What we know:
Blueprint: E1 10-12, H1 13-20, H2 24-32, E2 40-41, E3 47-50, H3 51-60, H4 66-93
Helix pairs in contact: 1-4, 3-4
Amino acid sequence: MPAHSNSPGFIPINKLSETLGIAMPTLRRWEKNESMPASIRFGGRIRYWKVETLKRWIETLESIPKEMQDEVLAGLEAAALDNFTTTTNNQDKS
């Protein structure tokens, strides 16, 4: 069964932007320039990234100290889980 955007393993661009403290236009530019992994779109315009893919990418960035990488990785996991929880709760209300 294919994964969906509300799976806990995916993070939307707005949550990624918030977590990393990087503006969405910058993330779009980095993706276009192949400075970061490509996003996935599930039937819409919103970009999602697989958390595992982002983790591997961040671990390769030598410009981020190891201590900060751990903090960023934990933030990504929390943001993806928050997105999943929020999406699931909103669907339950429907």
